[in-house]
Design goal:
Rossmann fold; 19 helices; 14 strands; globular; RNA-helicase_DEAD-box_CS; nucleus; ATP-binding; rRNA processing
Length: 448
């Protein structure tokens, strides 16, 4: 199949022009495969890694259909993180600018009431994280969510993560107000087609509905990590990981390198950010406890070079447009080997060299074995750091900096908001269960 233009794929002329203006001339393979099938009305599962243009693969057919009949909320895009939601929304706005498109972003960390009012004006597209949308469905009343009952498109972006257990109840609540699957088109995009995603493909369907179209871009699994990437490790007792991190960042070959340090928990990200700042590193962080404006600010500082080190949880690693870095450090080892691939994919892009260093503690052995099996490569020992060096250069100062950071966080009540919100949500779920029980009771009494 020769390279077709967007218009030949069936994209509206105005949209092809918008793409052209954004310097997007040729469809990528995921776009060429999915756009015509989505325009035919088929549900679609697209497997392609970040950076392969999957947003345009679902946005352009949706915008094409929308421009023929721009009524009500036309499409809902669900995605696991705020950053991704904002990034997708930016693309929709840019693509639909000349058609006066209205896009509403519904994510945590932003003004709840303002979002509810925006939803009431029935924007054309809603880009949301499941947790916050579920909150609106629970608490914002029918006028707010009425528009969602007639959406024509539902997109699950990073579907492999949305369909993991952590989003289960929120997703169900979101689906409860949407048209049933035979009355809407469902598009799933994912970097890894997991079993949970495959199950959806084989669900029984109404006779008049076309079969699900599934397309996986070939290169997803063949080249798990670039050849120019060195994967290194240090093996350390877990209680001195931070001291080792300090020593690695001070190595002559890394002392000016831009680096991302990945951690598994927001708490760790915040402790490290504060501790490293006390040691005069130019550092920024990205995690879910930060207000949205601060996250955006962090990303800008890192992109502009004002911060040399970005400390991030996986929330920040997926799909985000982070510039190429020279060094990726896995301070914590991810439980999913695919997350490892996403993380280290931030360096050694487009044929350039890059290093990925994993700080391995005694409990991480199994995880490392499954990562090595997945990337089909053994990690090599980072020779330049050893216990003596760490004890001499880093142990004392890092322990002190970390202790001070934790005392500050304690004073400021870091993480309290999350606890409060958790119990609020649990309460409102309990209340709604109780009121459902009461209604049932009353019904029973009436009938008897």
């Amino acid at each position: 199949m020769g390279t077709q233009s967007f218009q030949e794929l069936g994209v509206a002329k105005w949209l092809a022009e918008s793409l052209e203006a954004m310097q997007i001339h040729k469809p990528t393979s995921i776009q060429a495969a999915c756009i015509p099938e989505i325009l035919k009305g088929r549900d679609c599962i697209g497997g392609a890694k970040t950076g392969s243009g999957k947003t345009i693969a679902f946005a352009s057919p949706m915008l094409t259909k929308w421009s023929e009949d721009p009524l009500g909320i036309f499409g809902l895009v669900l995605t696991p993180t705020r950053e991704l939601a904002l990034q997708i929304a930016e693309q929709f706005v840019a693509l639909g600018a000349q058609m006066n498109i209205k896009v509403c972003v519904v994510v945590g960390g932003e003004d709840f009431v303002k979002q509810a009012l925006e939803l009431q004006t029935k924007p054309h597209f809603v880009i949301a994280t499941p947790g916050r949308l579920a909150d609106h469905i629970l608490n914002s009343g029918e006028t707010t969510i009425a528009g969602l009952r007639r959406v024509q498109y539902l997109v699950l972006d990073e579907a492999d993560r949305l369909l993991s257990n952590s989003f289960g109840s929120d997703l169900e609540r979101c689906f409860s107000v949407l048209p049933s699957s035979d009355k809407r088109q469902t598009l799933l995009f994912t970097a890894t087609i997991t079993d949970a995603v495959k199950v959806l493909k084989d669900k029984p369907r109404p006779a008049d509905k076309l079969p699900v179209f599934m397309h996986q871009v070939e290169s997803v699994d063949k080249v798990a990590i670039p050849r120019t990437l060195s994967t290194l490790y240090v093996f350390v007792p877990s209680f001195v990981k931070d001291a080792y991190l300090n020593s690695i960042l001070l190595l002559p070959k890394y002392k000016d390198a831009t680096a991302i340090v990945f951690v598994n928990r927001t708490m760790t990200a915040e402790v490290l950010r504060r501790a490293l700042r006390k040691l005069d590193f130019r550092v920024a962080s990205l995690h879910s406890e930060m207000p949205q404006s601060e996250r955006t600010n962090s990303l800008h500082r890192f992109k502009a070079g004002a911060a040399r080190i970005l400390i991030a949880t996986d929330v920040a690693s997926r799909g985000l447009d982070i510039p190429t870095v020279e060094l990726v450090i896995n301070f914590d080892i991810p439980s999913d080997p695919d997350d490892f691939i996403h993380r280290v994919g931030r360096t050694a892009r487009a044929g350039r060299k890059g290093d990925a260093i994993s700080i391995i503690g005694e409990r991480d052995i199994e995880r490392i074995q499954s990562i090595e099996a997945r990337i089909n490569k053994k990690m090599e020992l980072l020779e330049d750091v050893d216990d003596d060096k760490v004890i001499k250069d880093s142990l004392q100062i890092m322990t002190t900096a970390k202790r001070e950071a934790m005392m500050e966080m304690d004073k400021e009540g870091f993480g309290e908001k999350k606890k409060v919100n958790k119990s609020k949500r649990a309460n409102s779920e309990e209340n709604s269960l109780e009121s459902r029980r009461d209604k049932k009771k009353k019904k029973k009494q009436k009938t008897t």
